[in-house]
Amino acid sequence: MYVLVVSLNPITVIISIHLFLLINIPFLEAQALNHTKYYSDCSSATTVRCGEATYDQIHYPLWGENIRPKYCGLEGFELSCENTNLVIDIGYGNKFRVAKIFRSGMMIERYGDDHLNDTTCDPKFNNTILNEKLFEYGQNTKDLYMFYGCPLELHIPVRSGNRNNFTCRNGDKRKQVVFGVQSLLGDYFDRLNKSCKTYIRVPVNGFYLEIFSDVGSMPLEDLLASSFGVHYKINHTACSDCGKSGGECWKNTDLGVDPKCLRQPGKLIAAGGGMLLLLSVLLLLVLLILCFRKKTKNGSSGVSQYVSSNNVLSESEKAGTYMGIPTFSYSELEEATNNFDSNYELGNGGFGTVYKGKLRDGREVAVKRVYENSFKRVEQFMNEITILTGLRHPNLVVLYGSTSHECKVLLLVYEYIPNGTIADHLNRDSAQPGKLTWNTRMSIAIETASALLYLHVSDVIHRDVKTTNILLDNSFRVKVADFGLSRLFPTNVTHVSTVPQGTPGYVDPEYYQCYQLTDKSDVYSFGVVLIELISSMPAVDISRHRHEINLANLAIKKIQGDALHELVDPTLGFESDEEVRKMIMDVAELALRCLQNERELRPSMEEVHRSLKEIQRTDCAKEILRI
């Protein structure tokens, strides 16, 4: 019997490994270089300009010709630029214009020449059918059913103050069109399906649907043109984990499989090259030891290593966040405000002074002039543009445009809201007692809650909710303003850590203590606003007792001490009108929940909005019974 004996000489082993790496490193480099293009194309969000609008945050699973390579996304998530509109097909040929892109989804709206209005007897487009394998509707998107060709004698009950139908002319005959969400139509849905000629189902924005349902509040075409939310049906957790590890979701993979995580290929080369370098040095040292083992070692060898890192953070240029808003010249805005005359000054807003102005086209505007061009101010300036250009809601102030980011003086141009702020009508010298009735204050509360709920659904936290940031038009309709401190909130997280900012008297105490910002921070601030509407007292008043300087503390003490009557504005009829008394007590109880120190105990903005609507609806129902 022969036994094969292999001598594992250390030098032989090292040389063998060295040769193996020399052979395979080129393969590793080739593989890494092949991935370099993928990583370069897919590792960061893409910004694209389509028509007058600029869109950023285009990342996995989105792709499109001349926008982002197909291998960066998923089949079915293709974007295209058509007639100056960024368009996506959400399923079965249903194309929609992209209004805003989020990490987990987007806001989309109809586009094209086909419109419905409240004089049209026949639908001009088909049912909107969502590809449920790829998309799902956002939480505030509702399916509106519209039944056409219904007999006039068909009557569907509707709650007071709302509408669910209109009449139109079809040739020489008048017909009825009935609309509503299925949950509200209830048992009448099947009856409508049998009695009417046809129906269509279209997704709409739930906020606008509420406004539309109120008699005469909004035309049908405006409702159908409003943007609504859709979310991608992908593994967001896997993509989030991939991002945290320095990678990026990519590849046109099957929806049923977790997306692949693309990592920086340079690390692969560095790992192999580093191993090769280490073994080369080790081999050299062993050879030196063997050659000079009989000699005295008088010196010591050292290995110096130079490591360079070129990891430059790739951030989008601030100018890329304008999203197509018009830019004004400094001279035009200087002329509009009479050289920023102090007599035109409306007040101070967040990070600048606001002036009233009149543009050359006749529009009255509010012009915010940033205090100074420090990095922080420029960041707030750009933040407000980024937030407002992506949001559309009837109770949010409209941004008309700005000066260029290259202009030495940064100016923002908004629609002018003529009736001041809530604070002007509550606790200033200019306030007129009794002008804001309780019913008006309830409407203000509901509209403000609606705006904040829309922000939260859009992953935005306002962070500076207060009565001086809530504007009123001549009909006392709400316009929430001042988004300089607002934050776009990441998906799949419970909070973000940030240095507390805001206004004393309104800031969430847990935010101060833990530096954790959540949507419940806005809920706390709104709770203070509710107390101001009840009491007409300012959020902070140093003339009050030291334990009552903060209105939130005063309110909690009065409400829990069964002394609400001491808090309520005496002009509201709390003592003389039983219905007003009941409503104020319900709103005070809701405000108390909003002002809880622990955010987990506070209601969501959706619950707050729903509760206020229910309080108002109950009062309306009692009014009808009395009639």
UniProtKB/TrEMBL annotation:
Protein's cellular compartments: Membrane
Q: Which UniProt keywords apply?
A: ATP-binding, Glycoprotein, Kinase, Membrane, Nucleotide-binding, Serine/threonine-protein kinase, Signal, Transferase, Transmembrane, Transmembrane helix
SUPFAM superfamilies, per database record: Protein kinase-like (PK-like)
Q: Which domain of life is it from?
A: Eukaryota
Per UniProt, the enzyme's principal EC class comes to transferase
Q: Where does ATP bind?
A: K368
Has keyword Transit peptide? no
Which catalysed reactions does the entry list for this protein?
L-threonyl-[protein] + ATP = O-phospho-L-threonyl-[protein] + ADP + H(+); L-seryl-[protein] + ATP = O-phospho-L-seryl-[protein] + ADP + H(+)
The primary site where this protein sits is membrane
The signal peptide annotation in the UniProt record is none
Question: What Gene Ontology molecular-function terms does this entry list?
Answer: ATP binding; polysaccharide binding; protein serine/threonine kinase activity
- Record domain Protein kinase: where: 340-612
Q: Which PROSITE patterns match?
A: PROTEIN_KINASE_ATP, PROTEIN_KINASE_DOM, PROTEIN_KINASE_ST
This protein's GO CC annotations: plasma membrane
Lipid bilayer topology? Single-pass membrane protein
Q: What InterPro entries is this protein classified in? A: Kinase-like_dom_sf, Prot_kinase_dom, Protein_kinase_ATP_BS, Ser/Thr_kinase_AS, WAK_assoc_C, WAK_GUB
Q: What is its EC number?
A: 2.7.11.1
Q: Where do the TM regions start and end? A: 6-28, 268-290
Q: Does the keyword Transmembrane apply?
A: yes
| PANTHER family cross-referenced by the UniProt entry | LEAF RUST 10 DISEASE-RESISTANCE LOCUS RECEPTOR-LIKE PROTEIN KINASE-LIKE 1.4 (PTHR46008:SF2)
What is the name of this protein?
non-specific serine/threonine protein kinase
